Amino acid sequence: MAGGGTKAWRFARPTNPALAAAGERSIQRYLLQLHACLDERGPRPVIPLSHGDPSSSPSFRTAPEAEEAVVAAVRSGEYNGYSSPATALPARRAVSEYLSRDLPYKLSHDDIFLTCGGTQAIETVMSVFGQPGVNILLPKPGYPKHEAHAIFHRMEVRHYDLVPERGWEVDLEAVEALADENTVAILITNPNNPCGSVYTHEHLAKIADIASKLGILVIADEVYGHLVYGSTSFVPMGVFGEIVPVITLGAISKRWAVPGWRLGWIATCDPKGVLRKTKVTDSLRSFVNLISDPATFLQGAIPHIMKNTNDEFFSNIVRLLKETADICYGEINEIKCITCPYKPEGSFFMMVKLDVSQLSDISDDVDFCSKLVKEESVILLPGKALGMEHWLRITFATEPPTLKQGLERLKSFCLRHQSQAN
Ligand SMILES: *Cc1c(COP(=O)(O)O)cnc(C)c1O
Fold it and tell me: Into which CATH architecture does domain 64-308 fall?
């Protein structure tokens, strides 16, 4: 139509500027760029060692008990309506019992808020605390969605370092120096994505003490809870709920390898009732009432998923992760330009340091990953996506033969690009 290009659309004004800022913190953005570099006609299959979804590997298929619970819930015909107390209450009770097994006190269903995956749990806590002037302490390296949602909700983000030489522990002195009267919380991820670290009881106790001293709460992202296979066992932050109020974020996404099912939760681990007295619990409830609940048939299935899943399923997954972490660590140690400061003991990631000075024609981690995709059809996540330039994140939750092949290709890529001086 003539003149169509000059029509003055009333909505043609800047949209929410916080969206653009939040969008910068997206793993997806980097992965899309890398996929664009792929030579799809290449002779070899693509090996993605970049993302946190192992569900496509046959060895990581979820427990049959979990699949059966979902099928039974759908077939019952009882879960076709909107969520109601009749569907939500048993689900919340099941999650409270599941979490209470590892705590020195009992959670009740009132402590549990159901969410669509861990992502919505993050969105919820950031919405509740987010307002201009407030700041939150986040780890570096970190999980980008923490930062994206904090920024989107107009919070100031202050990064504390995780220290690679100390098993990626929290730099506790930095935490004290960063916090001020406008700090509301410190967020920790344990077991850790992207570092594969697992915090000891002792380290968590120190975090609790510092948070308590500063008068801030601890938000514990425990989406990888129980996925540990090293010398440190998993201790939920809620164990320290008497010292400091803890808000725990969880999901079935990773432990049951069903990230597409979108079932997560928020748990207030607060035996002294501080969050209730300060009305944080009311705000959580208000926000959760605004958003949509997880699908009701999953709410119906969750008590059975949590009760019936065979221990063997969990131990097989953990055994497999130990094996693939070993393979990954071993192979990386044979590559000169890449070093791994810490052998993972939990989750399914490891952070490795890239020394580009040993390579002839690679400028940084993003350049490294782009060329690796083009030449070897192997996808790694550049550390820049996680706030760590010159680092790489490797996911090892895949079939051992595929992982070995991917690491072989990585090794030959590094050899081919090694500078002559080395
Ligand atoms: C995957 C992940 C989440 C998000 O969980 P979903 O259930 O997939 O939405 C949250 N935190 C961390 C650290 C994760 O790796």
Answer: 3-Layer(aba) Sandwich (3.40)
Locate the ligand 1 atom nearest the alpha carbon of residue 192 and give its number.
Answer: 13
Spatial neighbors of 377 by CB under 8 A, at least 6 apart, are: 38, 39, 42, 44, 45, 46, 47, 409
Q: Which residues contact 46 (CB under 8 A, 6 or more apart)?
A: 38, 377, 378, 379
What contacts 290, CB < 8 A, 6 or more positions away?
none
Alpha-carbon Rg of the chain, whole angstroms?
22
Task: Determine how many CB atoms are found less than 10 A away from the CB of residue 337.
Answer: 20
Mean pLDDT of the 344-353 span: 97
**Angle between the 144-152 and 117-129 helix axes, to the nearest 10 degrees?**
40
Q: Nearest C-alpha to atom 6 of ligand 1 is from which residue?
A: 118
H or E stretch including 136? Answer: strand 135-140
Strand order in the sheet with 246-251: 112-115, 264-269, 246-251, 217-221, 183-189, 135-140, 156-163, 169-170
E-assigned strand segments in 180-318: 183-189, 217-221, 246-251, 264-269
Q: Determine the Cα angle at 118 with ends 117 and 123, to 5°.
A: 105
For the entire predicted model, the pTM comes to 0.96
Q: Is 265 helix (H, G, I), strand (E, B) or coil?
A: strand
Ligand 1 pocket (Cβ < 6 Å) reads 52, 117-119, 143, 189, 193, 221, 223, 251, 253, 259, 264
The predicted pLDDT at position 311 comes to 97
What's the whole-number mean pLDDT along residues 356-379? 96
Ligand 1 atom with the smallest distance to the CA of 120 is 9
At residue 205, the 3 state secondary structure works out as helix
Q: Cα(219)–Cα(284) distance, rounded to whole angstroms?
A: 13
From residue 320, how far is each of 315, 325, 348, 397, 402 by CA, in Å?
A: 9, 8, 10, 8, 13
Q: What percent of the chain has pLDDT over 90?
A: 88
Bridge partner list, 158 = 137
- How many other β-carbons are positioned within 10 Å of the β-carbon of residue 202? 8
* Ligand 1 closest atom vs CA 262: 7
Q: 18-60+312-416 maps to which CATH number? A: 3.90.1150.10
- How far apart (Å, rounded) are the C-alpha atoms in residues 248 and 71? 29
pLDDT confidence of 4, banded at 50, 70, 90?
low
Domain map (residue ranges) of the chain: 18-60+312-416, 64-308
Element spanning 148, H or E: helix 144-152
